[in-house]
């Protein structure tokens, strides 16, 4: 097979690092992380968080960069081709289909969520929700915007739909422009901007102190104390460890085939050891330093610890779209700060969502010889059709179902498969050599053993835990109202159709290749 | 509650560690990029 001489390339190493970091830094850093910390004992959560950052996050980063660059050497920019190179078995490419499926399904609903942040940035600067003073009113505003409830602010779903369309257009325009001129350019602008916005918010919040002196317990420092005071007594609870492992897993955007796709555009001797570590560190900085300094401290300062925990129980959307808008109404320059908050979420979202589009585009380009324009067009058409179900059936749980199977459980399955394939089937020795080749740093030897033994075991435990704890009840639709059940099944049917479609495409691509080789 | 001494130490280590690692990595990346660019220039000149 020829080396990658004709494929697109990154313009610069910094550009690539910012693009992969942009992929990792997403809504999870600023919304999921604070929710997880608040739900799992604050300070107690941070100890396993750092342990898993070292034994799970960084190793997985290197594994995915390694698989990606290795696959790119053989002109494969997506998981089916990459797995086929790693494991000379006819089933390998079908395992790789998971890398297309996960990124595509997440892209479908993530674009819609991303569009809410764009909408809320506009509502913040115009003060459109500034007449909603309670959590219930703010929640109704959100549901009204999403078309889930009637209200005075929106007469229908049209505004949400238009903003979804704009977000969708922006994503596919960036993807159409290509690796260097689209994705890299976006990352070079959006990532620094979002970090600056987050820093402005974090500093402003730090100086809020105790907003209401008559309630001294409601202070920013109590928020900080909640996250950072180490509570060793809670460490015996396995749930906290698994939640921390899960967060590390999500925050780095591993297990969805996106990092592989980006790394495939590297030259065979380009560094991946330092680039992978820089990406993980940048994501850690965005989460631990900035993400931890915004939502929870400010929520504790305005609502107190107990109410903040209740918001957290409501999930990331409650914290981001209900509690934060309430706070912006009470802070001087709240309209501007709210605008910055939602715009930073939008930038975090778009740098992640363009990454989710890349694996399928690379697959169509590399395996079918599609032009970029044609590949982007095909993906855009499929996503645009599928997103209609998400927009109109969101209130029935359509989005939640996709998020669980593709955006939660599926990720750990794919990560386990790729780790086993790379470190055990391809061989730990060869994998280690691949990851260190052309490296600007030498990966410490201890990571060899971590990647070979610890990472797959942690992933396996995580997968089993989630399977027992949540996958079985989810599968059996426990707690789902009867009226929503047909939509849950509809969501599953859509995912099955996408998965089968991708499997058939993979089969067709390899058939075409076999025919071509025969005729040669 | 506020930040306890343990909390301040933990926060300092966490923020310090992550920030140092990020800055160290970026400095190293920039340095290696510059060295590679220099080498390329030298090669061109030698040719």
Features:
heterodimer; A: 520 residues; mainly alpha; Amino acid/polyamine transporter I; 76% helix; 0% strand; B: 47 residues; rod-shaped
Strand content of chain B: under 5%
Question: Class by helix and strand content of chain A?
Answer: mainly alpha
Helical element count of chain A? Answer: 20
Largest interface: A-B, 31 and 22 residues
Order of helices and strands of chain A: HHHHHHHHHHHHHHHHHHHH
| Rg of chain B, nearest Å | 20 Å
CATH architectural designation of chain A: Up-down Bundle
Q: Which structural class is indicated by helix and strand composition of chain B? A: mainly alpha
Task: Identify the CATH class of chain A.
Answer: Mainly Alpha
Give me the count of strands of chain B: 0
Tell me, briefly, the overall form of chain A.
globular
Quote the distance from N terminus to C terminus of chain A: 14 Å
Beta strand % of chain A:
under 5%
Low-confidence stretches of chain A: none
Which whole number gives the mean pLDDT of chain B? Answer: 93
Largest sheet of chain B, in brief, is: none
Cα-to-Cα separation, first versus last residue of chain B: 69 Å
Tally of helical segments of chain B: 1
Topology diagram in text:
The complex is a heterodimer of chains A (520) and B (47).
Chain A: H1 13-24, H2 27-39, H3 43-73, H4 79-86, H5 92-125, H6 135-145, H7 158-177, H8 179-206, H9 220-228, H10 238-251, H11 258-263, H12 273-290, H13 295-313, H14 316-328, H15 334-368, H16 372-393, H17 398-425, H18 428-436, H19 446-475, H20 485-519
Helix pairs in contact in A: 1-8, 1-12, 1-15, 2-10, 2-12, 2-13, 2-14, 3-4, 3-9, 3-10, 3-12, 3-17, 3-19, 4-5, 5-7, 5-15, 5-16, 5-17, 5-20, 6-14, 7-8, 7-15, 7-16, 8-15, 9-13, 13-14, 14-15, 15-16, 17-18, 17-19, 17-20
Chain B: H1 5-46
């Amino acid at each position: 097979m020829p080396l990658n001489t004709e494929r697109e390339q990154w313009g610069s190493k910094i550009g690539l690092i910012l693009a992969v970091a942009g992929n990792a830094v997403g809504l999870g850093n600023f919304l999921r992380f604070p929710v997880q910390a608040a739900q799992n004992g604050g300070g107690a959560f941070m100890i396993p968080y750092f342990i898993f950052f070292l034994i799970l996050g960084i190793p997985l980063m290197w594994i995915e960069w390694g698989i990606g660059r290795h696959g790119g050497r053989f002109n494969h920019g997506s998981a089916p081709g990459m797995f086929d190179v790693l494991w000379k078995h006819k089933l390998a490419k079908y395992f790789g289909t998971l890398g297309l499926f996960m990124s595509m399904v997440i892209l479908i609903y993530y674009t819609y969520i991303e569009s809410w942040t764009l909408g809320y940035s506009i509502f913040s600067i115009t003060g459109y929700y500034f007449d909603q003073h309670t959590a219930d009113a703010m929640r109704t505003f959100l549901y009204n915007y999403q078309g889930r409830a009637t209200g005075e602010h929106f007469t229908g779903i049209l505004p949400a739909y238009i903003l979804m369309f704009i977000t969708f257009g922006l994503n596919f325009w960036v993807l159409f422009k290509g690796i260097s001129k689209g994705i890299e350019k976006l990352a070079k602008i959006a990532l620094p901007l979002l970090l600056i916005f987050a820093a402005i918010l974090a500093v402003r919040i730090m100086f809020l102190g105790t907003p209401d002196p008559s309630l001294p317990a409601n202070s920013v420092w109590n928020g900080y104390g909640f996250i950072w005071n180490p509570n060793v007594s809670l460490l015996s609870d396995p749930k906290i460890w698994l939640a921390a492992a899960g967060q590390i897993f999500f925050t780095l955007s591993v297990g969805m085939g996106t990092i592989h796709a980006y790394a495939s555009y590297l030259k065979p001797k380009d560094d991946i050891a330092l680039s992978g570590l820089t990406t993980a560190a940048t994501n850690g900085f965005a989460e631990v330093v900035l993400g931890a300094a915004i939502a929870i401290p400010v929520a504790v300062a305005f609502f107190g610890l107990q109410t903040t925990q209740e918001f957290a129980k409501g999930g990331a959307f409650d914290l981001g779209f209900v509690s934060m808008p309430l706070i912006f109404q009470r802070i001087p320059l709240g309209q501007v700060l709210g605008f910055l908050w939602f715009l930073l979420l939008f930038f975090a979202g778009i740098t992640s969502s363009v990454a989710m589009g890349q694996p399928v585009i690379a697959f169509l380009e590399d395996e079918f010889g599609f032009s970029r324009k044609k590949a982007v067009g095909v993906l855009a058409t499929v996503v645009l059709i599928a997103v209609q179900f998400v927009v109109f059936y969101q209130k029935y749980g359509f989005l939640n179902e996709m998020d669980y199977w593709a955006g939660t459980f599926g990720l750990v399955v794919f990560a386990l498969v790729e780790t086993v394939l790379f470190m055990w089937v391809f061989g730990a020795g060869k994998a280690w050599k691949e990851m260190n080749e052309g490296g600007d740093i030498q990966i410490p030897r201890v990571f060899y053993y971590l990647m070979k033994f610890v990472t797959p075991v942690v992933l396996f435990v995580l997968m089993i835990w989630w399977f027992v704890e949540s996958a079985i009840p989810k599968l059996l639709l426990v707690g789902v109202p009867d009226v929503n059940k047909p939509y849950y099944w509809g969501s599953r049917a859509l995912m099955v159709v996408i998965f089968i479609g991708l499997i058939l495409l993979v089969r067709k691509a390899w058939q075409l290749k076999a025919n071509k080789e025969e005729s040669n | 509650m506020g930040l306890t001494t343990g909390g301040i130490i933990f926060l300092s280590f966490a923020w310090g560690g992550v920030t140092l690692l990020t800055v160290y990595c970026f400095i190293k990346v920039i340095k290696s990029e510059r060295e590679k660019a220099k080498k390329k220039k030298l090669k061109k000149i030698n040719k």
